[in-house]
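Let us work through a complete example step by step.
Step 1: write down the sequence.
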Amino acid sequence: MKCRLALVVMTVLLGPSVGLFAQQDSSAASFPEASSEIVNFWVAYWAKPTPVIFGPQQESFDSNMHEVSFPFDIFNNPLDPSILDADAQWLKDHPANHLYIEGYASAEGNPGYNLTLSKRRADWVRQSLISKGVAGDQILLATGWGHTYPVCAELDQQCLSKNRLVRFIYSPR
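Step 2: predict the structure and record it as tokens.
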């Protein structure tokens, strides 16, 4: 958890100056070569199934917990609230499972705004899960990543909408 927290702090502090953000402003027609390689890496990474490192508990977690998608510029109203309800119920039924909540945003807008929006999404999902009966100590960290790790690299609306989400990451504790 300390490593993850350190990575969040480093990304927030150094990200804009080092150029770690994977997508550019939606007005850009194409990516520079290095940025394109980064984007392609993350798109390929998210397309792969999650590697099962922690055994059957993680496998069960990964198959039962689902991403929560959001509309453009909204942090407190998911596209399908029933997904969040199902995730909350599964977590209540499996109190030994712990998780990280990671919020994301599309590449529209500036990176600072996207980091704030994605953090709000992660925090809102955390509070929603707790209000639905999930124990607060099951959630180890809720953080926002902005548009750092895209699911889709294109800058059209269909692709950008795929990057507006909250993911759940299993932790053995």
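Step 3: interpret the result. Confidence is low (pLDDT under 50) at residues 16-32.
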